[in-house]
Amino acid sequence: MKLPTGLAIAAGTTFFAALPAWAQDAALQAPAAAAPAATVDKGDTAWMMISTVLVLAMILPGLALFYGGLARAKNMLSVMTQIGAVACLAMLIWVIYGYSLAFGPESALPSKFIAGFGKAFLAGVTPASQAATFTAGVEIPEYVFICFQMTFAAITIALVLGSVVERIKFSAVMLFALVWLTIVYFPIAHMVWATGGWFFDMGALDFAGGTVVHINAGVSALVLAMLIGKRIGYPTERMAPHSLTLTMVGTGLLWVGWFGFNAGSALEANGSAALAMINTFVATASAGLFWMLAERFSGHKGSALGFCSGIIAGLVAVTPAAGNSGPFGAIVLGAVASIVCYFAVTVLKPKLGYDDSLDAFGIHGVGGMVGAIGTAIVYAPSLGGPGAADYDMGAKLGVQLLAVVVTIAWAAIGTTIAFFIAKAVTGGRVSPEVEIEGLDLGEHGERAYNY
Amino acid sequence: MKLPTGLAIAAGTTFFAALPAWAQDAALQAPAAAAPAATVDKGDTAWMMISTVLVLAMILPGLALFYGGLARAKNMLSVMTQIGAVACLAMLIWVIYGYSLAFGPESALPSKFIAGFGKAFLAGVTPASQAATFTAGVEIPEYVFICFQMTFAAITIALVLGSVVERIKFSAVMLFALVWLTIVYFPIAHMVWATGGWFFDMGALDFAGGTVVHINAGVSALVLAMLIGKRIGYPTERMAPHSLTLTMVGTGLLWVGWFGFNAGSALEANGSAALAMINTFVATASAGLFWMLAERFSGHKGSALGFCSGIIAGLVAVTPAAGNSGPFGAIVLGAVASIVCYFAVTVLKPKLGYDDSLDAFGIHGVGGMVGAIGTAIVYAPSLGGPGAADYDMGAKLGVQLLAVVVTIAWAAIGTTIAFFIAKAVTGGRVSPEVEIEGLDLGEHGERAYNY
Amino acid sequence: MKLPTGLAIAAGTTFFAALPAWAQDAALQAPAAAAPAATVDKGDTAWMMISTVLVLAMILPGLALFYGGLARAKNMLSVMTQIGAVACLAMLIWVIYGYSLAFGPESALPSKFIAGFGKAFLAGVTPASQAATFTAGVEIPEYVFICFQMTFAAITIALVLGSVVERIKFSAVMLFALVWLTIVYFPIAHMVWATGGWFFDMGALDFAGGTVVHINAGVSALVLAMLIGKRIGYPTERMAPHSLTLTMVGTGLLWVGWFGFNAGSALEANGSAALAMINTFVATASAGLFWMLAERFSGHKGSALGFCSGIIAGLVAVTPAAGNSGPFGAIVLGAVASIVCYFAVTVLKPKLGYDDSLDAFGIHGVGGMVGAIGTAIVYAPSLGGPGAADYDMGAKLGVQLLAVVVTIAWAAIGTTIAFFIAKAVTGGRVSPEVEIEGLDLGEHGERAYNY
Amino acid sequence: MKLVIAIIKPFKLDDVREALTEVGVAGMTVTEVKGFGRQKGQTEIYRGAEYSTNMVPKIKIEIVCASDVAPRVVEAVQASANTGAIGDGKIFVLDVGQAVRIRTGETDETAL
Amino acid sequence: MKLVIAIIKPFKLDDVREALTEVGVAGMTVTEVKGFGRQKGQTEIYRGAEYSTNMVPKIKIEIVCASDVAPRVVEAVQASANTGAIGDGKIFVLDVGQAVRIRTGETDETAL
Amino acid sequence: MKLVIAIIKPFKLDDVREALTEVGVAGMTVTEVKGFGRQKGQTEIYRGAEYSTNMVPKIKIEIVCASDVAPRVVEAVQASANTGAIGDGKIFVLDVGQAVRIRTGETDETAL
Ligand SMILES: Nc1ncnc2c1ncn2[C@@H]1O[C@H](COP(=O)(O)OP(=O)(O)O)[C@@H](O)[C@H]1O
Ligand SMILES: Nc1ncnc2c1ncn2[C@@H]1O[C@H](COP(=O)(O)OP(=O)(O)O)[C@@H](O)[C@H]1O
Ligand SMILES: Nc1ncnc2c1ncn2[C@@H]1O[C@H](COP(=O)(O)OP(=O)(O)O)[C@@H](O)[C@H]1O
C-alpha cells in the first residue's frame, strides 16, 4: 500500500521523493511524546493549500500570459485557451485515473513504471484521508495532496504546447493531451515520486519535478515541434512577440507561483520549505541577470525578454535543486542554466532549424537538464549543499544522468505515439488559411483585441 | 449572544452556515484532552488570512479585469473604477455597521432577518477577540473573520454592476451600493450565515455563499438592467469585448482567488477545506470544457470567451456545494451549470431582450440557482456526497428552493428601492453624449489607453 | 548576538521593531507550560512564507505594472526591466552581505547605525536556524525571515526608480542600486528594525516599514529626480499614462501583496497580524475614495488614476500604523494621507517644478511622512489605538519626527553619493535620441507591443 | 473617376456605409484618423497634468467611383453623416487617373 | 508625378515592397486600413452576439513617383499582390502637382 | 483647392500644427503611418531572432486649403518639420476638385 488513507500508518517513513529528511527540523517540530498515529498539522495544510493555489496561478494566468505575450496578436486567444483547456482536461483525468496510476496502490502492472487503477475515481478517499510527507508521523489531508499533484500534471502538459502554438489545432491539442498524460506523464510521475517508482528507488534527486515536469515537457515539446513542422513564414517573416508587457507579467506570476511549486514540494511548512524558498529566490535572481549579461557579452543589448527568459531558466534549473542545495550553489546553478539556455535558444536552435515557437525545449528542456545534473553537484556539502558528509557525487551524477536519459527517451517515444494518434483523428495542423489569418478567428471565431 | 468575542464560549457548537461538522476531522485535529476554552490554531489563522487576501484578488484585479475586458475600450476605466470604488465603500460600511447587522448580537430587530447595531463600529472587538468556526473549541481571531466576510460583501456588490456598466453614472453606483448593501446584502448574509438567521435555521446548504453572493447579485443585476434600460445601440451595434486577453486573465485570477472564497469558507485548514478545494478544481474544469462542448453542439466554434464563461459558471455553481459534494458530484454539477448558463446567455437573453451587459444574471444568477438546487442533490451519500445515510433529498430540495425564492424576491424588491433612490438623487444614467463618447472620458476625464 | 540561530534563546524577548507585544494574544497562543526553548509553529511559518511571496508579487508584476502603465508605451519594457533587475540585484546582495549588515551580529562598526559582516554569505544559517518574533518563545525559520526581509530591500530600491524612469540608463540604475542599498537601505533597515538600532532603541513606531521603505524611497526618488533633471518635453508635452488599465491591475496587485507586507510584519499568524490586516483594508479603502473626493472638491472629475493613487497613498500611510492603530484611526489616517498626497502631487509638484515621473516622492515620500507622524496619533488608546493607558503622545511624536528627519537626511545624502558614482561610471542619462525614440528600443532593442 | 474622401464621426460609420450601399457603392476603404478643427477635444487630467487634446478621433472613408456617380456619393455621405453638431467632418473630391483590380487586372470603372 | 495608392492584403506587404524595390522605388508610406468590398469578413460570436464584420484588415501603400515610372509601379504591385482570390485589392493612380523633401527643401522628382 | 499631404516625424507634430495655425490653417487630419525610405529602422532582437524593420513610424498630415494658400502651407510645414536628419519626410500637393462641410453643406473654400 502506497499512500496511507484513512488510517495513517504510524511508522510511515520518508515516503515520496528524493529529499533528506531534515532530521533536525523534525526534531524541533514533532510532538515531543511518541506519536502513536500520524498527525495533521494545520500549518502544513494551510501551506499546502496555498501552494496548490499558487501552482494554479502559474498556469492561468501565469503561463497563459507568458506564452500568449510571445505569440502574435492573431493567435493570442488560441494560446490562452489551449493552455486553459488542457489544464482542465488534466484535472479531470487526474481524479478519474491519473492520480491512481501515479500514486495509487500497486497492481498487476509493473510497479516500477506505473501504479494501478485501485484509486481510480479516487476510490476510498474521504476528507479524513491522509497522505504522508517526508517526515515520519506528519501527514496532510489526502485531498490536498491530490490537488497539489493535480496542478503539476496540468502545468506540465500546458508547457509542452509552447513549441507548437500558432499552428496546432485545438482538437489535436486536446486529444494529444489525453494520450500524452496517460502514457508519458503519469508513468514518469510515478517513477520519480512514488515509493517503488524506478527513479525514486534509485535515489534520484528531484525536489520539485525537474525531471517529471521540465525535462519531460521540454523534450516532448521538441519532438512535437519537429513532427508538426514549422510555422508558415518561419524564420524569415517577422514574428515578434505581440506583447512583451504580458510576457513580463506572466514571468512575474510564474515566479510568484513557483514558490508553491518548489517550496510546496517540501509538503510541510518547515525548514526544508524555507530552504527551497530562498534557493528559488536567489537562483532565479541570478539567472535573470546572467541572461542579460550573456546578451551583453554577445554584443547585444540586455533585453526585457532576455531578463524574462533568464528568470524562467533559473526557476526551471532550481526546481530539482530547490531543497537540495545551499543558496550559493543555487546562485551558481541559476547563472549556469541561464547561460546554457541562452546559447540553446540563440545559437543552437537557428542552427538546427526546428521551430520551437516559444522555446519550450530551449528553456524547459535544456534548463531542466542543467538543473537535474547540476543538482548532483550543488548537493555536495563541500559546496554548501545539504548532502551528507560522505556524499558520493560521482555516483549521484550517474543516477541523475540515467534518470535524464530515460526521461528523454520515454518522452520522445510517448510524444510520437500521442502525436500520430492526434493527427490521425483530428488532422493535427490547421489549414494554411487559418494559420495566416490567425487561430483566434479560425479556430475560435473571436479576436483578442477590439480597440 | 452570537459571535463570541474576547471570552470565547467553550461549548461553542457549530456556529454559522450549513456545513456538516466533519466529526472525523475534528477528532483528528482537536487536542486530545478536553479543552476548557476554545483555542486558536495559527494554521487556521494563516489559512483564513490568505483566503481573505485571495478574495480581495478576485475583486481587484480579478473581477475588474474579467468585466473590464468584456466592455468596450472607451468604458474600461469606468468599469474598473466602479468595481474598485464600491468594494472600498463596502469595506467602510462593513466595519461601521454592516458586520454588526449581519453577525452582531441580537437586538430589537427581528433576528430572523437581521442582527442589531450592538457591534456597530466594531464595538468591543480587539485583537484578542475570537470568532467560532464549525468545530467546537476551535476559533479564529475575530478580526480575521471580519475581514474575510468583508471581502464577501465587497465582491457581491461589485458583481451586481456587471449588468449596467457602460451606462450607469459613477455617483449612482455609489449611492445604489450604499442602499443595496444595507437593505439587501446584510439581511441575506444574516439569514444564511448567522445562528438564528432564517435560512440557517432551516438548514439550507450554502457552503460559501451561492445564495448570498451569486443568486443575490445575479437577480439584482437583472432587475437593475431592466430598470436602467439598454445601452444605446444594443443589440444591433457591434459591442465586442475590447480585450478577451484581459478577460482571460481575470478568469484565471477569479479561479485562483475562488479557493479563498470556497475553501476559506471552511474557516479552518482541514479536510473540509480540502474537499472544498478539490471540488472547486474539478467542477470548474468540467464547466470550462462543457461550455465549449455546448458551443460545438450548437454548431459554433468552441470559443475563448466560452471557456472563460464556463469557468465562472462552474465556480458559481460549486460555491454552495464546495464542501457539500464529492468530487464526481461536483464534476456533474459544473457540467450542468455550464450548459444551463450557456442557454441562458445565448438563447434566453436575446429572446427576453434585456441588456445584461456582461451577463451578471446569466452566469451568476442562473449558475447560482443551478448550484443551490444541485447542492441538495450532490449532497446525497449515494452520489458520493457527504450527507448522512438517512439524508432526505426531497426535504432538502424544498429547503433550498425556498431559500432561492426568498432570495430572489428580497433581491428584486431591494434592488428596485435602491435604484429609485439612486436615480432620484443622481439621475442614474449618463447622458447619451457621454455614453457614446465613453464613460472614461465623460465620467472620469481619462483614457484607458494612450499608445 | 542578535538573531538567534540554530539554538534559539529561550528567553528571547521582543526582538525587532516597534510593536507592542500583544500580551493578550501571547497568553492565548503560547503553550501553557513553560517552554524551555523557542518553538516554531508551522502556522507562523506558512503565514510568513506566503507573506514573502505576496511581497514578491508586489514587485513583479505589481509595481512593474503600476509604474509601467503610467509610463509612455515606448518606455514600458524599460520600466519593467529596471524594476525586475534591481529587485534581482537586491536579492543577491542581500544574501551576500545585506542581511548581515542589517540584521547580523554586532561588529567593530557603530552598531547604532549598522551591523557587521558576521553573517555575510549567510554564514552559519541552516534550515534549522531560527529567528525571533515579537513573542517570547515563538520563532520562525531564519531562512523565512531572511526571504521576507529580502523582498523588502528589493521593493524599496524598485520604488525609488519611479521618479527617474523614461530617462535613466539601465546601467546607471544597476550601479546606483548597488551603492544605494549598501549605504542607505541596509543602515536604515538596521536602525529601525534591529535590536540596538538607533530608531529601534528610541522606540520609534514603524510596524511594517513606513520609514525604511516609503520615506526612504520617496525622498531618495525626489533627490534623484532633481539630480538627473527633467524629461525632454516636460511639462509641456503630452505624457499621458499609456495604459491606466495596467496601472489599475498593478494597484490591485499591490493592495493584495501589501497584506504580506503589513500583516506579515507581525511575523506570526496571530491577532496582531489580524489587526494589521483589517487596518490595511480600511485605511486603503478610505484613501481610495478620499482621493476621488478631493478631486471633486477641487472641481474635477473623480478619476481612475485618482482612485489608484489614493489606494497607494493609503497603503503607504497605514504601513507604519498597521498594528499600531484601531480600524477607525486607520480610516482617518488613510483619508488624511490621501488628501495630503493629492495636494503634493497636483499643487506642490507643479509649483516646485521638479519632474518626479511617476510621483514616487509625492505618494511614497509624502504618504510615508503622514503615516509615520500619524502613527503617533492613532496609537493613542483614546483614539482606539493599542497604546497603553499612560501613552504620551507628545513624546512619541517627537521620536517619530526625529526618525523621519534623520531618514530624510540620510536618504538625501546617500542618494547624492550613489548618483554621482553611477553617473561617473555610466553617464547616468540616456542620449536625447534614445529618450525621444524610447528606452525600449534604445536600451533594450525591443518594442513592448507589436500588434 | 473620382476619389471621394470623407472625414466623419466614428459612430456614424454604419449609417454612412448603408447610405453608400443604397447609391450602389460596393467598396470603400476606412482609416482611423485624428482630426483637428473647430471641434474641441475633451480635457483629460492625470494627477494634475492637464491635456486638452484638440485632437478628435475621426474616421476617414475613401471611395473611388465613376465621375458621374460622385455627386450622389457626396450627397449620400453628407446626408447620412450629418448630426448638425460641430465636428461632423468634411468631404473632399479628387480626380483619379486610373484604377486597377489587383485580382483580375481589370482597369478603370470595371475595376471598382 | 503620380500618387499610386494600393490597397492590398496585409500578408502581401513584404512581397510588394520587394517588387517595388526592384523597379527602383525607394520610398513609400504604409497605413493599416479596413476594407469593405466583395470579400466578406469572418463571423465572430461573443456569448451568442454574432458580428459579421464585412470589414477586412488591409494595408494601404502610397507611392509618389515620376509619371513615366508609374505604369511600372502599378504593374509591379499588381503582379506581386495578386493571389487570385477575392479581396486582393485595388490600385488607384492620381496626379501629384508638387513634391518636397522636408530635410533639404528639394522639390519634385529629385525629392522622391 | 489643394490637398497638401505631409509625412513627418511623429515628435514634430506639435511644432507643425503650431506653424500651420500661424499661416491660418484651422483644420487638418492626422494619421499614424509607417514609412519606408532612406531612414533605417532600429534593429530588434527577440531571443536571437533579429528583425531590422526598415519601417519607421511616421505621421501623415492632410490639409485641404485654397490654392493660393498652398505655397505658404508647404513652406510652413517644411520649415517646422525640418530637423536636418534623414527621414524628415516629404510633402506632396494634389488638386482637389470639391470640398463640402458635412454639418452645413457649405462647399469649396467656405467649407474648409
Ligand atoms: N482643412 C482641412 N483639411 C483636412 N481636414 C480637415 C480640414 N478641416 C477640417 N478637417 C477635418 O474635418 C474634421 C471636422 O472639422 P471641424 O472644423 O471640427 O468641424 P466642422 O467640419 O463641423 O466645421 C476635423 O476633425 C478634421 O479631421
Ligand atoms: N470603390 C472603392 N473605393 C475604395 N476602395 C475600394 C473600393 N472597392 C474596393 N476597395 C478596397 O479594395 C479592397 C478589395 O476589394 P474587394 O471588392 O473585396 O475585392 P476585389 O478587389 O478582389 O474585387 C476592399 O477591401 C477595399 O479596401
Ligand atoms: N516615394 C515616396 N512615396 C511616398 N512616401 C514616401 C516616398 N519616399 C519617402 N516617403 C515617405 O517619407 C519618409 C521619409 O523618407 P526618407 O527617404 O526616409 O527620408 P528623407 O525624406 O529625409 O530623404 C518615408 O519614411 C516615407 O514615409
From TrEMBL, chains A, B, C:
Its membrane topology: Multi-pass membrane protein
Cellular component terms (Gene Ontology): plasma membrane
Transmembrane segments: 47-67, 79-99, 143-165, 172-195, 207-228, 240-261, 273-292, 304-322, 328-348, 360-381, 401-422
Major localisation: membrane
Cellular localization per UniProt: Cell membrane; Membrane
UniProt domain Ammonium transporter AmtB-like: residue ranges: 46-449
Pfam families, alphabetized: Ammonium_transp
Alphabetized InterPro entries for the sequence: Ammonium/urea_transptr, Ammonium_transpt, Ammonium_transpt_CS, NH4_transpt_AmtB-like_dom, RhesusRHD
Molecular function in Gene Ontology: ammonium channel activity
Keywords: Ammonia transport, Membrane, Transmembrane, Transmembrane helix, Transport
Family in the record: Belongs to the ammonia transporter channel (TC 1.A.11.2) family.
PANTHER family reported for this sequence: AMMONIUM TRANSPORTER MEP2
Protein's name according to its UniProt entry: Ammonium transporter
Organism: Sphingomonas desiccabilis
Lineage of the species this protein comes from: Bacteria, Pseudomonadati, Pseudomonadota, Alphaproteobacteria, Sphingomonadales
UniProtKB/TrEMBL annotation, chains D, E, F:
Keywords: Nitrogen fixation, Nucleotide-binding, Phosphoprotein, Transcription, Transcription regulation
Pfam families for the chain: P-II
Gene3D superfamilies assigned: 3.30.70.120
GO molecular-function term, one example from the UniProt record: enzyme regulator activity
GO CC, alphabetical: cytosol
GO annotation, biological process: regulation of nitrogen utilization
Plastid listed as a keyword: no
Modified residues (O-UMP-tyrosine): Y51
Superkingdom of source: Bacteria
Family of the protein in this entry: Belongs to the P(II) protein family.
Assembly: Homotrimer.
Protein's name in the database: Nitrogen regulatory protein P-II
Organism: Sphingomonas desiccabilis
